[in-house]
Amino acid sequence: MESLKQQLTQEGKEILEVIEEIKEKLEEARKKFDQATDDALIDCYIYEINALYKKYEYFLKVAKEIGLIAVGYEKIG
To answer: Rounded to two decimals, what is the model's pTM?
Structure first.
């Protein structure tokens, strides 16, 4: 039973790391979007933000499914 708990803890840590990475990439993409003036770049950042948002939602769902609870992680958008 202890190894399952350790595995869950390791899995939870990895999921939180991925979520943090996605949040940082979202923030960066939003800043670039705000500064973009070219229509093609604006479209690229919109697609990037949407893709990262979907990825963020997916990992929040996975975290919820394994019973991971963390303060400060909520649906964004």
So the answer is: 0.76
